[in-house]
Amino acid sequence: MTTRGRHVKSAAIGGLTAVAALVVVTPLLLVFGFLLYQGAAAVNLDFFTHLPKPVGEVGGGMANAIVGSLILLALAAALGLPLGILGGMYLAESQDRRLPLILRFLADVLNGVPSIVIGIFAYTVLVLPMRRFSALAGGFALAVIMVPIVLRTTEEMLRLVPRTLREAGLGLGLSRWKVAVRVVLPTARAGIVTGVMVSIARVAGETAPLLFTAFGNRFWHGGLDQPIAALPLQIFAYAIAPYDDWHRQAWAGALVLIGLVFVVSLAARVATRGRYSAAR
Amino acid sequence: MDTSATLGRTGTVEGLPLSPLARRRSAARHWGDRVYGGLTRGAALTLVLVVVAIALVMARMAWPALRAFGWRFAITSTWDPVADRFGALPFIYGTLVSSALAMLIAVPLGIGASVYLAELAPLWIRPPIGFLVELVAAIPSVIYGLWGIFVLAPFLRTWVQPALGQALGFLPLFQGPPYGVGMLAAGLILAIMVVPYITAVGREVLRAVPDAQREAALGLGATRWETTRIAVLTYGRSGLVGAVLLGLGRALGETMAVTMVIGNRPEISASLFAPGYTMASVIANEFTEATGDLYLSALVEVGLLLFLITVAVNGLARILVWSVARVPAGSQA
Question: Which of A213, B23, B152, B301 could in theory staple to A137 by disulfide, Cβ–Cβ 3.0 to 4.6 A?
Fold first, then answer.
């Protein structure tokens, strides 16, 4: 093949891969466009302040589901974040050779376990003994999903902290835990915050593990040991129902949910702008 | 370097006599280090606990069904809660076919896009497109499902399926009435959902290929594409297979979007237009309604199968990805 031909071929394949990249991001425009188109009309103040109306009555909102989702996220964060961050510190700082490797592998495997399976797990260990669906069980399921994500990002961020910083701390006579807590952790804070937000964005939209743990609720929840509404559950229930009015509500809920997810993702991005890429 | 070799655990020089104050401080440090070590190690070890607990708890719940049906569970297709007879073949079939269809579309697109993002795209365009890919991956499953029901399925019903039926209707794959919802819709929605994962992991793998590889090829006069093909893709091949397997793992376990567009009928049909059912969606739909003990047990067994399959696929995928893109610098991984 001539040199010219080879360069033409190179450019042609470059073009093909560019088209592939374009196709990969197109669904974002399609999905987000329809969400705006269908959802914007149905999102109003009532949507954020009112309970769902019974079938046949127009209006109403998803206030209970929005609050429910926030409660579930708080529960998941309270349980999952300490475990994930401490575990990540262990993986990054451990002098052991074998154990961190195994744990890292397990974290990645757990990250790939379908969320519906996590739901069955939470159902068996919490719903069956308590004999009822509950916010606690939902929060637990989400926490199990959160832990491996937070753990791995925390570890990677801590590894970006230069070794010389640790040595300087130890050299000044600080103990290991003080170096870890007072020197390494603050240095990696922005990165860890990003990991936390990525994990929150991920579980905020989770539906499958809540189906038989949090279960959903048409009203305000009556305590953490009671079934609780969640935005994704409500969207699912409304989407598969045969009423046009519910479909409108489902679109509105989806718009609010994706707004939440995107804002958290963007914030995560901003938190580490510059540092992350510079450290690579 | 291991500092403890020279300084000892507490940071004091071994063998020197300590003043009482220093001794007290040293004891406090020792204590602090122990608490710190115990806490972080304990947190990390809960991972083992969780993974083992998931397997054990599900195996116990699935035991009655395992005992009642044995191997026939995976190869028979009667799913009759009233008669307490359960066979999961239609769900296994649905999961495998929808995932295969998704991979057929997602693999070339995902690999192509990751090559573009890591090798061929102008530098300034890489971060924004990379970010858009992350956003596509961040859209929740239930929203893809909603979009699938009200946008994708009607589009398939009115445009795609009639056209496919006319052009390729002689194949059993494209026969039958166009419902919109069905195996084809499930495969497409899965492809859309899985492709950003393949792209993102694939990009990381390709980025991890050492620059010396590229420079050597470029130095010999190779074009950009030749460099990519000879020096980068060959080097990163196993990592890319890992990226694809990670995508496959996602597709196999994906629940909500598929449940909303696959039609949920436990039948095995050669046609992609026909409704189907997957392992994940039968659990999603029937778990809270399962009245009998054996019924619930059978559903958990479906979950256990799904768990084992995805653990195997993901485990293999990680090993392959790690063989190329090792965890960030400094670790022995």
Answer: A213
Closest by Cβ to A107, choosing from B47, B131, B138: B47
pLDDT confidence bin for A56, thresholds 50/70/90: confident
| Chain B environment of A31 (Cβ under 8 Å) | 139, 143-144, 147
Q: Which residues of A touch B108 (CB under 8 A)?
A: 20
Evaluated on CA atoms B145, B150, B152, B153, the torsion sign reads: positive
At the topology level of CATH, where does A45-278 sit? MetI-like fold (1.10.3720)
Comparing alpha-carbon positions, the chain A residue that sits nearest to B13 is A173
* Residue A117: closest CA among B304, B73, B59, B251: B304
Tell me, letter by letter, the H, E, C secondary structure of A217-280: CCCCCCCCCCCECCHHHHHHHHHCCCCHHHHHHHHHHHHHHHHHHHHHHHHHHHHCCCHHHHCC
- Shortest CA gap B229–chain A (Å): 10
Size of interface A-B (CB pairs under 8 A): 297
Q: Which of A255, A217, A264 is nearest to A48 (CA)?
A: A255
How would you write chain B as a 3-class SS string? Answer: CCCHHHHCCCCCCCCCCCCHHHHHHHHHHHHHHHHHHHHHHHHHHHHHHHHHHHHHHHHHHHHHHHHHHCCHHHHCCCEECCCCEECCHHHHHHHHHHHHHHHHHHHHHHHHHHHHHHHHCCHHHHHHHHHHHHHHHHCCHHHHHHHHHHHHHHHHHHHHHHHHHHHHCCCHHHCCCCCCCCHHHHHHHHHHHHHHHHHHHHHHHHHCCCHHHHHHHHHCCCCHHHHHHHHHHHHHHHHHHHHHHHHHHHHHHCCHHHHHHCCCCCCCCCCCCCCCCCHHHHHHHHHHHCCCHHHHHHHHHHHHHHHHHHHHHHHHHHHHHHHHCCCCCCCCC
Instruction: Please write the tens of the pLDDT for every residue from A19-33.
Output: 999 999 999 999 999
Distance from CA of A128 to the nearest CA of B (A): 11
Confidence of residue B11 (pLDDT cuts 50, 70, 90): very low
How confident is residue B15, by pLDDT bands cut at 50, 70 and 90?
low
Query: What distance in Å separates residue B268's CA from the closest CA in chain A?
Result: 23
Q: Is the pLDDT of residue B187 over 50?
A: yes
pLDDT for position B17: 62
Judged by CB atoms closer than 8 Å, whether chains meet at A208 and B284 is answered as yes
For an interface test with B, give the residue of A9, A22, A24, A90 to mutate (most B CBs within 10 A): A24
Min Cα–Cα distance to chain A from B220, Å: 13
Is the domain covering B72-324 a CATH 1.10.3720.10 domain?
A: yes
Q: Is there a contact between B108 and A25 if contact means CB atoms under 8 Å apart?
A: no
Contact yes or no for B43 and A90 at CB 8 A? yes
Which residues from B are below 8 Å from A176, CB to CB? 9, 11, 33, 36-37
Domain regions of chain A by residue span: 1-39, 45-278
Q: Which residues of A touch B4 (CB under 8 A)?
A: 95
